[in-house]
Amino acid sequence: MSSRIFLTLACGALLLLGACAPGGPQAAQTANCIGLFRHYDALERTARRPENRTIPPVLAFQQTRLRASDCITMAADLAGMEALPAAPVVDSGAMIVPTTLHAGVVTSDADDARARAFFEARGVQARSVGEAGLGRRVYIGPFATDGAIRDARALAVSAGFAHPYAAAF
Fold first, then answer.
1. Dist CA 75 CA 109 (whole Å)
2. Are both 90 and 138 inside the same structural domain?
3. Is residue 81 located within the same domain as residue 9?
4. Were 169 and a residue from 31, 54, 100, 136 both cysteine, which residue would form a disulfide, CB within 3.0 to 4.6 Å?
């Protein structure tokens, strides 16, 4: 096997692991989690709920994929978020269609309350929705400028949410 083919195959394998992706492994992890969440959102819109089950099997499978891929925000990830500066998110830049940001999923009511209080203290509307088998999904916004949504995403990441994305709410 030529060295060029070997290097191509090796980089392809590393790309799957995130090592060759622009931004490195964390960027690849975020892209993977956002893709998994968007797939979950699409499945949730179309999944039929069996009479005797609270979670359709297709959603349960996707929840397992989200947890196995470390896409859920744990309490340790949010450690110290209350001590972050209270700079508000400000509208700036081009106007966009009002867009809500899915900050992430937390695993307890206490972390949900902390996260919502964190965002609201910075002037950002926050709400959450419980998902049986997954946790509480925290949403912030809506935001009407590209600068505001960029700042809101940065705020969510600074608080400990690793994979925020623009989502329909």
1. 11
2. yes
3. no
4. 100
- For 14-72, the DSSP string reads HHHHTSSSTTHHHHHHHHHHHHHHHHHHHHHHH----TT-SS-HHHHHHHHHHHHTT-S
| Same domain? 67 vs 77 | no
- Angle at the Cα of 84 (from 82 to 88), degrees rounded to 5? 105
CA distance 86 to 95: 24
Tell me: the pLDDT tens digits for 74-128? 999 999 999 998 777 889 999 999 999 999 999 999 999 999 999 999 999 999 9
**Do both 79 and 152 map to the same domain?**
yes
Helix, strand, or coil (residue 139): strand
**The two structure tokens encoding residue 160:** 């400990």
| Strand (E) or helix (H) holding 159 | helix 146-159
Domain boundary among 45, 71, 97: 71
Domain span at 6: 1-71
- Encode pLDDT of 25-45 as tens digits: 678 888 999 999 999 999 988
